[in-house]
Amino acid sequence: MIQVKSKQPHVGTTIFTVMSKLATDMGALNLAQGFPSFNCSPELIDLVSFHLKKGHNQYAPMAGVPALKEAIAEKTADLYKVNYHPENEVTVVSGATEALYAAITAVVRPNDEVIVFEPAYDSYAPSVELNGGILVYITLKPPHYQIDWEVVKQKITPQTRLIMLNTPHNPTGKMLSMSDLNYLAEIVRDTNIFIISDEVYEHITFDGRPHISLMMHPTLQERTFICGSFGKTFHITGWKIGYCLAPKDLSVEFRKAHQWITFATSTPMQYALADFLKKPENYLAIPDFYQKKRDKFLSCIQSTRFTYTPAEGSFFQTVSYSGISEENDYDLAIRLTKEIGVASIPVSVFYHQKNDYKILRFCFAKDDGILEQAGERLRKI
């Protein structure tokens, strides 16, 4: 029997797959995996149908359909007052996870150090390791998950090649401020350090907070890959369409990786999104839509024994159960799925040493009826 020597022997099935399968098997409410339970705009579906029938069914250009790249550049300029050239600096990819992998591949070489703030989305570390990078973790702790920039400065070495950031943050819901950007800019100024900014939840922000993109600081913009997602914004996670904004020289290297990963992304869906973006209200209304979802979920769990700080952004809410149980978070997440029928994600899985702060993550991108049922069940604890 031929033997396979795994490149990632410690990597198994993701917690999202595990919890979603368990939720299905147990007939539980799935507030674990981050996908909406509601459909996207009927107009968007009609646009896809239109372009399918129009014959836009062959390979798209490797870097993306020009109309969509132009629409992304226009939206970015309108929102953040930053100009990216649609031909040379905007790349459409098959989901933000691909964008993250391609960006890491573009700049990380064996033995380069990559700073990752944890809790972190689970694709970051494996992508760095597959490219030969060395992970340097900075641990953020509840309840505030604040970045200590002095600690970041101390972690910088001559081998530091990349810093990975995520705002609004999954799983904590925290957002970076302009003050954070200023601190970071001082650290990386006059270095050869690149930055990847995972901004897939850019339109899901609450309580009037503006999304502060790393592109808004000139020192950061020139060295940053901005990774975005239409899946999160328009409730179309199954379409797997994302994009990367980066200066021309960075985009050249990014596309070298992208062309060998997926080459091109679904053509009719790109044309549909290009048309959909012509109406700014389609994305400008998103913060209010999701604020109502967050507030609904918080009202449903208000009388439970969980404690929490309202999420600043994303469609996730973390809650502490430290006053309820001494169980580790993984065991509790499994038990709640089986016994009361509500699936969540244990936040320890987002830490490389599985730090257990007695925190669970719930996705509130669900119909109100599901959130109400979840609240009713969680009140039984």
Describe how the helices and strands are arranged.
Blueprint: H1 15-26, E1 29-30, H2 42-54, H3 66-80, E2 90-93, H4 96-107, E3 113-118, H5 124-130, E4 134-139, H6 149-155, E5 160-166, H7 178-188, E6 194-198, H8 218-221, E7 224-229, H9 230-234, E8 242-245, H10 248-261, H11 267-276, H12 281-284, H13 286-301, E9 316-320, H14 329-339, E10 342-343, E11 345-346, E12 359-363, H15 368-378
Parallel strand pairs: 1-10, 3-4, 3-5, 5-6, 6-7
Antiparallel strand pairs: 2-8, 7-8, 9-12, 11-12
Helix pairs in contact: 1-14, 2-11, 3-11, 4-10, 13-15
Structure overview:
The protein is α/β, with parallel strands linked by helices and 381 residues long. The protein folds into two domains: 15-40 and 284-378, Aspartate Aminotransferase, domain 1, CATH 3.90.1150; 42-281, 3-Layer(aba) Sandwich (Aspartate Aminotransferase, domain 2), CATH 3.40.640. The protein is built from 15 helices and twelve strands. The chain has helices at residues 15-26, 42-54, 66-80, 96-107, 124-130, 149-155, 178-188, 218-221, 230-234, 248-261, 267-276, 281-284, 286-301, 329-339, 368-378, and strands at 29-30, 90-93, 113-118, 134-139, 160-166, 194-198, 224-229, 242-245, 316-320, 342-343, 345-346, 359-363. Strands 2-8-7-6-5-3-4 form a seven-stranded mixed β-sheet, sandwiched between helices. It has a three-stranded antiparallel β-sheet with strand order 9-12-11. Strand 3 (113-118), helix 5 and strand 4 form a beta-alpha-beta unit. The longest helix has 16 residues, at 286-301. The model has no long low-confidence stretch (mean pLDDT 97).
